[in-house]
């Protein structure tokens, strides 16, 4: 908020409080020229107006709320840019990264500032940290069969992963289905945990410049043929002759990096499972422009103990129940 609007809010708020307080004091005095308890000389439909003072309970309550308002505005932020004498804030404002958030938290604690969100996080870690620590001592396969562990893991998934993979974990365009057995980087407990801890960055390069429009069309035909699709055989044969440039990641058989124990995360092109769509148009778009999907790293966000439990839940989704 700019200085002008901050001053505007402060002046307007304090002026309203002063006006209300003055109005209350004015109503506590008798200005009508009639003694309290006597008639004011007005009657309507049998109802006579009596000069009665404000009820004591109402007056005391009004004074109490006024005092509370003054205290609240002085102690807490909200009156323009005033930060409050209590040094309280709901959260660290203006942070744009996890590193900035951690730095702001450390600075607030060192300065004795009361940041509500930080206090809640600290309290939660003290309460639930030992629970996650106990689960982290068990292997993932065991946790994948533990109903209590899976219940907690599902909550972690709903809070942190469902935005991309869906509440049912079946994913969508550009976001993998976690309930099948098709894995770009491997579906073993160790590989899933590695993905969650450190994240993944896809690196499918664009091939439009290298292949040209016709070359992309031919490569698309060959790629689609690998999964048993009906295509123009002439184009597919021409695409096959160029496939060597793709084999470094997908393998000469097109079965992907997992089948060949490669670290690239290149999908299997023979199973008809498509992350960005398996239509001719979608495959051509992938070849023309490449793909650069990003799976964020959760190590610094959730911590290793929570990631361990989340791994067990994700691993359980693709296992036969």
Automatic annotation (TrEMBL):
UniProt pathway: Energy metabolism; oxidative phosphorylation
Family: Belongs to the CcoP / FixP family.
Biological role: C-type cytochrome. Part of the cbb3-type cytochrome c oxidase complex.
Cofactor binding description: Binds 2 heme C groups per subunit.
Subcellular location: Cell inner membrane
Record protein name field: Cbb3-type cytochrome c oxidase subunit
SUPFAM superfamilies in alphabetical order: Cytochrome c
Keywords noted in UniProt: Cell inner membrane, Cell membrane, Electron transport, Heme, Hydrogen ion transport, Ion transport, Iron, Membrane, Metal-binding, Oxidoreductase, Repeat, Respiratory chain, Transmembrane, Transmembrane helix, Transport
Cytochrome c domain residues: 148-227, 234-318
Gene that encodes it: ccoP
Organism: Pseudoalteromonas caenipelagi
Segments crossing the lipid bilayer: 7-26, 57-79
